[in-house]
Amino acid sequence: MQQLVRLAQCLCGALTAETRGEPWRVMTCSCRDCRRKSGSAFSVSTYWEPDTVTITGDVQTWQRPCQDGRALRYFLCPACGVSLYWKADFAGGRIGIGAGNFDDCSFAVPQKAFWTEGRPDWVYDIGQIPALERQ
After folding, report:
1. Is position 123 within any domain?
2. How far apart (Å, rounded) are the C-alpha atoms in residues 73 and 47?
3. Those residues with Cβ within 8 angstroms of residue 119's Cβ, 6 or more apart along the chain or in another chain
């Protein structure tokens, strides 16, 4: 059986991550740092086993402690600055890739929500607002 291949990339396309198969887990996070990183009310992250991801392109790294003190290492494109993927102590060696970095992120249906204490109440009503297919 052939595995599904997906491509994630930074904004300029110089840094890519090719994934094979299905993610280990898809989750949302509303912690302060994920909100800041995503620029939104929460992040949607896909986590992959290391042997299912092939990274291509130059990277810069940046490390910080998570809110609980464990290490989180970001891998950014040096050209456009986008953090394409990360490795976190809490993920057991798995590689995290933001769902929005894939052209088609419809596969990334969240299975868990973390740090929900930071999630705004309006998130529950988002499906009720007017929606435009394009701007």
Report:
1. no
2. 14
3. 30, 41, 42, 113
Do the beta carbons of residue 21 and residue 3 sit within 8 Å?
yes
125 in a domain, yes or no? no
Model pLDDT for residues 67-110, shown as the tens digit of each residue? 677 888 999 999 999 999 999 877 788 999 999 999 999 999 99
Strand partners, 71: 65
The pTM is what? 0.85
CATH number of 80's domain: 2.170.150.70
Task: Tell me if 67 sits within 8 A of 85, measured CB to CB.
Answer: no
CA–CA separation, 97 vs 24, rounded Å? 11
Sign of CA dihedral 21, 100, 28, 33: positive
Residue 70 resides in a domain: yes
Q: Are 101 and 48 in contact (CB under 8 A)?
A: no
15 neighbors 21 (Cβ within 8 angstroms): no
Judge contact between 84 and 101, C-beta under 8 A.
yes
